[in-house]
Amino acid sequence: MEEYIKKLLEQIRFEKAHKAIGDEIRAHIEDQIEKNMSDGMDKETAEKSAVEDMGNPVDAGIELDKVHRPQMAWEVVLATLVVAALGIVIRVFMESKGLLFFHYVHYAYNESYGLWDNILLFWELSEVAYFIKATIIGMALMLILYFIDYTTVAKYSKVMGGLLVMAFVLNRIIKFWLYDHNIFNVQIDYSYALMKSIDIIDALRPLIIPLFSGIIYRYKGQKYKGLIKAGFWIIITLVVQYSGSVEWSILIICMLTELTMAVMKGWIEVKKKPVLIAMWSSFIILFAHYIYRLKSPLSPIHTVADEVIRVYLKDAKLFGEGKIPVALGINIYSIALSMGIVIAIAVAAAIIGLIVVGLIAASKTKNQLGCVMAAGCLSWLAGNTVFSTLSGFGIMPDMYQASFLPFISGEITYDSLIASYAMFGIILSIYKYKNAYAEHVDISLRVRSKDFGG
Length: 454
Description:
2 domains; globular
């Protein structure tokens, strides 16, 4: 039997799939051996017959090689390109109408410059050009993550998660110190560069989501001790990343979603129903209190923002430009005012469609770690889309301008836009290895070769 399996696996070039295939073939042969023995064969004859029934190992291996080679989810890539192109079209339209603000500067043709100098100036100051550059960077990152085995991310999840937490704490200390010393009022260019360097750390926030799936996977087999450890990571994230914004709420929702799946799949062996009820009830109470504070007179900024949104949406048209207050960024609210409510709904539907395509691709993996990690990444994209759409149509409070629309928004900083592509890069990696890993995989910290590529 083992010789048969060895010869079969030699035909399969994708070595990461060897263990899963070997275990599956071995289990199948052993089942057949038991059946043969129950039919009256002795063990040696039963094994020989079971192996012969499997057919030629070379031919079988060649066929399995076709199935288990790394694959790209081209439908995901194509759908992403379509949504990226949609973002460019929206920007070109709105910039042609003079509806965008960007970097506190506006492009104007300078007659003292040559044509090429003016083209370069436009490229530096144009919101469309910055969006295209950020999109290219995002897609490059998506492809890089495609080539990285997602189990490698899980393997070092605790280490990277700890470093992220320390970076967030240090970043917050530095930010408070700079504000206390009024550093940001020294000079616009200097303050922008300084703020941008701080935003780079803030942009890493979504990374805690895929890392958290690897962290809780390490608690597999533990009981309430594992649940407490997982809860500790959520609380730490809640405290050190608190920003009073929708982004903070979405991070917690994504982590709770991953923990819920871990409990449901039996990674953490606790009484499922009471634990899940207590977990989500706590979040709902916290979130409801947060919404209540935003709608109270003590939050005049948000009250005014919500009133402004509703006032101008009353004059929005189904198609075409409505009443526009000032220059706008790119979000559901601005698209509805400048292009029409129907177009805004269509844009939101296109992004939701892209997320569904990613969900279908990720669901094809049989590995539990991949399923949970994909659920976290897709929850982040879906959460941002839902919150942006609801606040953009004035259905829920603005929540510190919850205007980020995955793959579409950007404005002065494009960190979240790039993070959108990073999430899909992880989805592509999960799809790539969908036939490589069995239901469970070993992510212990042992030296393992070929973590990149396949």
